[in-house]
Amino acid sequence: TDETSSPIFGIDQPKQYLGLDKAPNPQEYLLSAIAAELTQRLSAAAIRDSVDVDAIDVRCAGSIDLQGITYINPEAPVKLHDIAVDVHLASATPLSQLEPLVRECCTQSVLQATICQAGSIQVTVEHNGQPVGQFRSDRAQVDEYLPVIARLAEQVAAAWQAGLDQARASA
């Protein structure tokens, strides 16, 4: 890829996740991608089937557990979960024709299928433009690593609490 033409996406977290809340978080980008893909599929299917649709508005939301994303509680869901997609269509077409169209587009969504199926991710590491490593990341590796992250988070939280206690004692 030509790095000069690649878009730059700012990434942040909400303040309650210790971010600055100046840009979307990775999960919000994923939810936006799901909504964008479904919108595109619905538009194309409506044109293909000559279904009159005046407007398509797809909204996507999900939940993240603060204890999970910060690895404070290894039992908390770390992943984006409880994903909900709301499809709003402005159309004179009867619902009986629109519902199968929406169902078909959801069923054929590549992003939804990717999220629903456990799989692995191929990771290639480059340094100064040269490939230096390659590995696969899968669910078993993540499950193995979560206790390590949880212990580190506990240590950080304990150190932070000790600092607060010391500051209060000094005040």
What does this structure look like?
The protein is an alpha+beta fold and 171 residues long. It is built from 5 helices and 4 strands. The chain has a two-stranded antiparallel ribbon with strand order 1-2. The protein has a two-stranded antiparallel ribbon with strand order 3-4. A hairpin with a 2-residue loop joins strand 3 and strand 4. Helix 1 (26-48) packs across helix 3. The model has no long low-confidence stretch (mean pLDDT 84).
Describe, in short, the structure shown:
The protein has 171 residues and is α+β, with helices and mostly antiparallel strands. The protein contains 5 helices and 4 strands; from the N terminus they run H-E-H-E-H-H-E-E-H. The protein has helices at 26-48, 66-69, 95-107, 110-116, 139-170; strands spanning 55-63, 81-90, 121-127, 130-137.
* Number of alpha- plus pi-helical segments: 5
Class derived from helix and strand content? alpha+beta
Compute the number of strand runs: 4
Proportion of residues in β-strands? 15-25%
Order of helices and strands: HEHEHHEEH
Bin the helical content: 40-55%
Low-confidence stretches: none
Largest sheet: 2 strands, antiparallel
Cα-based radius of gyration, to the nearest Å: 22 Å
Globular, elongated, flat, extended or rod-shaped: what is the shape?
elongated
- Adjacency order of strands in the biggest sheet: 1-2
